[in-house]
Design a protein that fits this description.
Elements (H helix, E strand, L loop, with lengths): L1 H11 L2 H12 L2 H32 L10 H14 L15 H20 L9 H23 L11
Helix pairs in contact: 2-3, 5-6
């Protein structure tokens, strides 16, 4: 269950930038403001209604139903995307150009940093070998990530913009 939750976070992280890209790319200028507003409503509505609906499902049925709550909206979104988006062939060669070193160093650095910040207080910060080692891994990988991104012509994150 933890592995699938991690996969959900990994793949879900791309959804918001992808949604904004779709709004900007496919909506005409006159409809973009409405598209952004509707996206904002859904992005804020879901986290506010989710706990309420989750509590109701748990109370009425079982906690198992929390995992099924996303199935109907997911199917609806897939049908809408299949209908609304133009079909294009998959370009597998683009996978060769992906910044895998950036993805790995960012995932390791940010993942370790998150554990350090979440668990540090509970585990006595740097008095804990785990927190100290994760902090070292985080600093090394975040440093490597920045160095790699500054040297790449097609970086995962264009740090030069900052």
């Amino acid at each position: 269950m933890i592995a699938f939750r991690a996969l959900q976070g990994f793949f879900g992280g791309a959804l918001i930038p992808l949604a904004f890209r779709l709004i900007l790319e496919f909506l005409p200028d006159s409809k973009r403001a409405m598209g952004m507003a509707l996206f904002g409503v859904t992005a804020t509505f879901a986290p506010s209604i989710g706990p309420t609906l989750g509590g109701w499902l748990t109370e009425q049925f079982s906690w198992h139903y929390l995992f099924y709550i996303n199935v109907p909206p997911g199917i609806l979104v897939m049908v809408m995307l299949a209908y609304g988006l133009e079909r294009k062939p998959i370009i597998w060669d683009k996978l060769k150009d992906a910044d895998y070193s950036g993805i790995i160093t960012m995932a390791l650095g940010m993942g370790c940093l998150e554990v350090v910040l979440e668990e540090g207080n509970r585990k006595d910060w740097f008095g804990s070998d785990l927190i100290r080692n994760l902090a070292i891994i985080a600093v090394i990988n975040i440093g490597l990530f920045i160095w790699i991104q500054l040297r790449k012509s097609q970086p995962l994150v264009n740090i030069r913009l900052l």
